[in-house]
Amino acid sequence: MKRMMIVLMSLVLTLPALAQYGRPRYYRRPPVVHSPHRTYTDVYYGLRIGAAFATVNSDDRYLDGGSMKTGLDVGAVVGFQVAYRSPVYFETGLSYIEKGGKGHYEGAKFSYSLDYLQVPLVMKYMIDVDRMFSIQPYVGGYLALGVAGKIKDFGHRQAYSSFDSKEGFQRFDGGIRIGCGIQYDFVYAELGYDFGLSNISHDYFDTSRTGALFATVGFNF
């Protein structure tokens, strides 16, 4: 887990250098015809850090974590302009996000963490308010791989891996991502939601799906 965090942070720290290497620092494309306030770049890089407020809805009462669990959300993104003179971008990247849930079963408390390496795959539209400020709604999906997590059974005072046991969850997750960002100069903030579509339960007769509201801040280069 520590090695994964080191790799992720190395990627985050490297992106600004890649951005400057990829094109001159002050390079901008000519203004788009229908939006004279702004000049668009063909590629941008971003850093993000914030919080995720996650739940898991499950048919299995022992795993139904309907109470919200708070975790970290940190990562890096890259956006590609889909067409010349277009405010539409395809955005992807890599993030480390802590999801999970908590609740009660037979009067005893339980909680579990589901920590993922996650790849967003979204289409973003940039709406200019003026030359410095823009609103950026987006929609798409995400793919995630579980890398760590613990299930804590307070009734039996036991803890075990969220992914490496039949009582836990499958590692792969995927779903729909919607949200909206705002940007002022290089400063960026966003609010969004991940709707899990994959059944992460090992049981063929029960379904378990993740959900996470996330809020992050960062910079675009």
Can you describe what's shown?
It is a single chain. The protein is mainly beta. The protein contains 1 helix and 13 strands; from the N terminus they run αβββββββββββββ. The strands form 2 sheets. An 8-stranded antiparallel barrel has the order 3-4-5-6-8-11-12-13. A two-stranded antiparallel sheet has the order 1-2. The longest helix is centred in the first third of the chain and has 21 residues. The radius of gyration is 20 Å and the shape is elongated. The two termini are 29 Å apart.
Order of helices and strands: HEEEEEEEEEEEEE
Structure annotation, total helices: 1
Report the uncertain regions.
Answer: 18-34
Reported for the largest beta sheet, the result is:
8 strands, antiparallel, barrel
**What percentage of amino acids are in beta strands?**
over 45%
Report the strand count. Answer: 13
Mean pLDDT across every amino acid position: 84
End-to-end separation in angstroms reads 29 Å
Choose one word for the global shape.
Answer: elongated
Numbering strands along the chain, what is their spatial order in the largest sheet? 3-4-5-6-8-11-12-13
What structural category characterises the helix and strand content?
Answer: mainly beta
Could you write a compact summary of the structure shown?
The chain is mainly beta. The protein has one helix at 2-22, and strands at residues 31-32, 35-39, 43-58, 65-81, 88-105, 108-125, 127-128, 133-148, 150-153, 158-161, 172-184, 187-196, 208-220.
